[in-house]
Amino acid sequence: MIDRAVSRRHTLASGLTVCQFTMPGFHQKYAQYTTHFGAVDEVFITEDGVRQVTPAGVAHFLEHKVFEQKEGNALQMFAPLGASPNAFTSQTITAYHFECTDRFYESLELLLTFVNNPYFTEENVKKERGIIGQEIGMVNDNPAWRAYTGLFSVLFPDHRISTSVIGTVESIGRITPDTLRLCHGNFYSPGNMVLTVAGDVDFEKVCRIAEERTPKKGPAVARRSYETGEAFRGGPVRDGMEMAVSQPVYLLGFRDREIPAGCSPRRREAAATLAAELVCGPSSPLFSKLYGENYVTRDFETEYVSFPGGGALVAGGEGRDPERVFDAVLEETKRQLAEGLSEERFTRLARAALGKRLRLLDSPEGLCVAEAEAFFDGESIADTLSHYRTLRLTEVEAFMKEVMRPENAGLYQITPAGGQRA
Predict the structure, then answer these.
(1) Alpha carbon 380 to its chain's center
(2) pLDDT tens for residues 36-90?
(3) CA–CA dist 242, 230 (Å, integer)
(4) What is the pLDDT of residues 88-108, one digit of tens each?
(5) Which among 375, 19, 362 is positioned nearest to 197, based on CA atoms?
(6) CB 2 within 8 A of CB 178
């Protein structure tokens, strides 16, 4: 856990920051190499002032292709070292990671080497189009995924957050080796990346390897451009589609504004999280009522998502009448604000939320992932935990009044095809 780890941070001459949690006696070791480049970064201005427009899904496509090396696939190169590698792409970051128990430093050298030295050819890019095309088909058949992308298309039709992380078959068909080189060259730069490490490893040796295996200095990071299009028409907005599901799958949400410069995205997230817990969390009166009447199940979850240009508080799961749940959340928010929020209940929920986050950090992986996410918000895990310790009820109330309003609300539901249960 974080209170049993020694945290250190150092920025190398190249601009790369190394964050490490030294955990004496811990057998498992974990490293994550993360770039601040995700699905929303489709349009950007390069150092020479040229505006670049790339196809949807390019960050995810690049994640796949970075593993490809002239000597073979880097995933297979980890096997003799006894390490387990993987990667992921979100709307705002791309991360490459591995975990192991032995031969950590050799695995770290491999991780840094292949991420910094990609190998793109017409042949391997063409092959990847087919692989990702199959992945697109699979996720498009996933009701939860369609509900998620559908909700953001409702709440943010004017932002690239509403496009799918993996793109479309048409968009990935326009990705070429030159597209990948362009994005890698502009965003896989040391000053735009962070290396997070956790386990019983030597910090100075980690920094030496990072110095040796990363570029001495990368190009200036491209300036991102989040251009808007169709405006949000104001809520509550309800939309959806039919699929082969036995009961509706849905997400409801509230559109948030862009967090002003100088304000903490992590504190905003904490306020949103506690607001959701008060209104419809598993210990709330509303959840108990809806659960008792079979309108929600135990898979009903809430989450706050932030990104350049905005944020959203979302909630949902499966249930027989999403419209009923949506209206109930709107009404319960209005009722609590009118009657006044409970300080005692808020304190209890804040402590529970803090405890949950401490438990999530009880592993090298949890520490590395959370630190990398906080880093690009200009913060750290310690800052995140501090927000939950110091957050005031007045801040949560202000969030509810500003964001959790009908005009900011949207619902997207996946209903059984033909209006019948499958």
Answers:
(1) 16
(2) 999 999 999 998 899 999 999 999 999 999 999 998 899 999 999 999 999 999 9
(3) 24
(4) 999 999 999 999 999 999 999
(5) 19
(6) no
| 237-243 vs 409-416, strand pairing mode | parallel
Superfamily of 2-224 according to CATH: Metalloenzyme, LuxS/M16 peptidase-like (3.30.830.10)
Classify the C-alpha dihedral 89-90-94-97 as positive or negative. Answer: negative
Residues 283-313: tens digit of each pLDDT: 999 999 999 999 999 999 999 998 888 899 9
CATH superfamily, with its number, for domain 237-419: Metalloenzyme, LuxS/M16 peptidase-like (3.30.830.10)
The confidence band for 262, taking pLDDT boundaries of 50, 70 and 90, is confident
The torsion of the CA quartet 120, 13, 186, 366, rounded to 10 degrees, works out to: 80
